[in-house]
Design a protein that fits this description.
The complex is a heterodimer of chains A (150) and B (366).
Chain A: H1 5-14, H2 32-46, H3 50-67, E1 72-74, E2 78-89, E3 99-108, E4 114-117, H4 119-128, H5 142-149
Antiparallel strand pairs in A: 1-2, 2-3, 3-4
Helix pairs in contact in A: 3-4
Chain B: H1 2-30, E1 35-40, E2 44-49, H2 54-60, E3 79-84, H3 99-104, E4 106-108, E5 118-121, E6 130-143, E7 146-155, E8 166-171, E9 181-186, E10 196-202, H4 208-215, E11 222-229, E12 240-246, H5 250-262, E13 269-275, H6 284-293, E14 297-303, E15 315-316, H7 323-326, E16 333-338, H8 341-353, E17 361-363
Parallel strand pairs in B: 1-5, 12-13, 12-16, 13-14, 14-15, 16-17
Antiparallel strand pairs in B: 1-2, 3-4, 3-5, 6-7, 6-11, 7-10, 8-9, 8-11
The chains are: A alpha+beta (150), B alpha/beta (366).
């Protein structure tokens, strides 16, 4: 696939060892445009939007952040913890600003599903509809998000 | 048919090549900014070849603004005031600047490309910041995820810093990282030791720099850092001091307490250290010894999740609920915090609820 210089830069930023140790693509061979397009199509089928998911993840993140160290139980079924660490990371798409490092882990106690995300994931979902490539550490599959959060 | 396709390919390739050549020429002639002057504080003038970022140009001339992200525009540390030149404020800078800073002309040096003469202002203490080459003379494991590095200075061979300040350590490219990265770490040793520094570093899961430190860096290796940076320093008052830290946040507090002990400080000091289990505690004996050496110092480790069956007799739970027990005079208390952003937020909230003034709560926000 032909890439503009801007797309090349984004692609490079997504590789392992550039912005983060494992990168954002996992073992996915698809171009990031294809990943985004296929996830958008999956979302449409599920009746969800990137904004809805980003909003939901942000709400949960804020509640977990305020709980400091402790796990919290939301809606009687979502067990959430926030592992806050120092430092910030940046958006591979070149969006300005820094996003706190750290992970939010959520387990749905009803179905046992667990998802893990970072503040950068929320930004990438909201602004770029990018859920990361298959096999990436913080890949958030739309189907699994739906089953876990909604 | 094939000949037509081949001709088309050749023509398109030729045009593309010609355009690329024109771009190279344009870059050479039109993007050549020539020599540019950077006036610093009206006292020092640098003459540099234009085209690089202001941050890089200053670094090349051994003037080191803080930068924890290596100039990627993600940390917002490399602020300086631009009096003239520098072009318009960029969208990449806005998230890091408040309206007051924007009005004063504060900019991020990593985002300004030097294309013309510039007049800038930076704090005088920045001239004290140097790039150091050091040898890793000792590595000690404190816990399963916390190490101490002792860095013996090679060039320059001495450092002047204030207790509480930090340095930016440079991890070179290695197997798992394509570029060198810099990360900020507080100095743990006393400023009275000028020929070495100690750092206390906690492994960040999948962190590029800490993976290098934990899995690749060996005793005897050389490593570079710049510093000292930061204004998380002891305020010269007689107020009570409350230190709160977690994890590797013990580093600057250790430096401060060792310095205060050397100065014979009589100030009332409490140090509350938060950890999950006993396995996360370290340097406990050293701080118990400081209780003997300092006139009025108490060390209070607090475990949030002590394992069942362990013989922990100390405080449990979270730190903020213990504030009423240890803060005698909130209006006369300075709080020095070091830890994760989540910990800082929770502790700061607790301090404010207990009457400590916001302007007396100090911490580094990286």
């Amino acid at each position: 696939m032909k890439e503009t210089p801007q797309e090349k830069k984004i692609h490079e930023n997504m590789k392992a060892g550039v912005l983060t140790m494992h990168g954002f693509l996992g073992d996915d061979d698809r171009h990031f445009h294809e990943i985004i397009a296929e996830d958008k199509a999956a979302l449409e089928k599920l009746g969800l939007s990137c904004y809805q998911i980003a909003d939901k993840l942000q709400q949960i993140t804020d509640k977990a952040y305020n709980s400091y160290q402790d796990s919290i139980l939301l809606d009687d079924k979502l067990l959430v913890s926030y592992n806050s660490v120092r430092g910030k990371t940046i958006c591979p798409f070149g969006h300005p600003g820094g996003y706190p490092k750290g992970e939010i882990k959520l387990k749905n106690l009803e179905n046992g599903r667990t998802i893990v995300w970072t503040p950068l994931n929320i930004h990438m979902i909201r602004e770029h509809c990018f859920f990361e490539g298959e096999g990436s550490k913080h890949r958030l599959d739309p189907q699994i998000i739906k089953k876990t959060l909604f | 048919m094939i000949i037509t396709i081949a001709n088309t390919v050749i023509i398109v390739s030729g045009i593309s090549g010609f355009l690329a050549f024109l771009l190279v020429l344009a870059e050479k002639f039109f993007a050549n900014y020539g020599e540019c002057k950077i006036d610093i504080n009206g006292k020092k003038e640098l003459v540099i070849e234009g085209g690089s970022s202001l941050l890089a140009s200053l670094n090349e001339n051994k003037i080191f603004l803080a930068s924890a992200c290596g100039g990627r525009g993600s940390c917002g540390f490399c602020k300086c005031t631009v009096k003239s030149g520098g072009g318009p404020l960029l969208p990449t800078e806005k998230p890091f600047l408040n309206s007051q800073e924007i009005n004063k002309g504060v900019r991020l040096a990593c985002q300004i490309k030097v294309k013309e003469d510039l007049q800038i202002e930076i704090p005088e203490e920045i001239f004290n910041i140097r790039k150091f080459k050091a040898e890793v003379s000792q590595i000690r494991n404190f816990t399963y995820d916390i190490k101490e590095l002792t860095l013996k200075l090679i060039e320059p061979n001495e450092i002047d810093f204030k207790a509480g300040q930090y340095v930016q350590l440079e991890a070179p490219p290695y197997e798992k990282s394509k570029h060198s990265v810099t990360r900020a770490y507080s100095i743990a040793s006393s400023p009275l030791h000028k020929d070495y520094i100690q750092l206390i570093i906690r492994r960040v899961p999948d962190g590029i720099c800490t993976t290098y430190i934990f899995d690749y860096l060996q005793q005897g290796d050389n490593i570079n850092f710049t510093g000292p940076f930061g204004d998380f320093i002891i305020r010269d008052t007689q107020s009570d001091m409350l230190f709160v830290a977690g994890g590797s946040g013990k580093a600057p507090i250790k430096s401060m307490l060792e310095y205060l002990q050397n100065q014979g400080s009589k100030r009332r000091m409490i140090y509350m250290f938060g950890a999950r289990t006993k396995d996360d505690l370290y340097l406990t004996e050293e701080f118990r010894e400081l209780e003997e050496k300092l006139a009025d110092f108490t060390y209070v480790p607090v475990l949030s999740k002590p394992k069942e069956g362990t013989d922990w007799q100390g405080k449990t739970g979270y730190i903020p609920p213990y504030f009423p027990e240890y803060i005698k005079d909130p209006q006369n208390t300075e709080a020095y915090l070091c830890g994760s952003p989540g910990m800082i937020a929770a502790v700061k909230k607790g301090l404010l609820e207990n009457g400590v003034s916001e302007d007396k709560i100090y911490y580094d926000s990286f």
